Amino acid sequence: MRRKESSRGFTLIELLVVVIILAILMLILVPIFQSAIQKTKQKTTMSDMSDLAKAVMSYITDVGSAPTSPNGELAPDSQLVMDLTPMQKITFSTRDNWGMPYRVWTGLDVAGVFGIDSAEVGTDDFIIQSLGRDGLDEGFSYNPNDSSNNFYVIQDISDFSRDLILWNGGWIHAPRASG
User: Fold this and answer.
1) Which domain holds residue 37?
2) Do the beta carbons of residue 70 and residue 85 sit within 8 Å?
3) In the predicted model, what is the mean pLDDT of residues 108-129?
């Protein structure tokens, strides 16, 4: 008597069905994971910017005016970093979580940045900006009467390219708090 072999492999159709199901799952999950990664980078950048703002505010409290302005891109060896470093018990980053340097203006150099009126600026003012995921300045102009322009809702991955901007420790351009 012969024994009939019962070992059977997968058919081509079964393999195709599995591949199609996996592809559909990937199409659904990849954007969710990408969004989660970008949200984490954005939240960490916002926290790092707040730490830098606290360092500047501490300097202002001790000295009476803002530290030397880099007038834009913050380099690790800039005078602002040198002014802040001896006074700080915490470290702060000079780059956002997308790898781009923060942009910083202090004192009277704040006048005109993002449309801020020079009449509103003193020697103790400062602005910190992250250019977001794409590293490009979106051309934001501050309007204290239009919060719809100042704050935005994250609706898709492109919204992580929006700038993050602090003025004197308060957000003037950032994602709207949910709730």
Assistant:
1) 12-175
2) no
3) 94
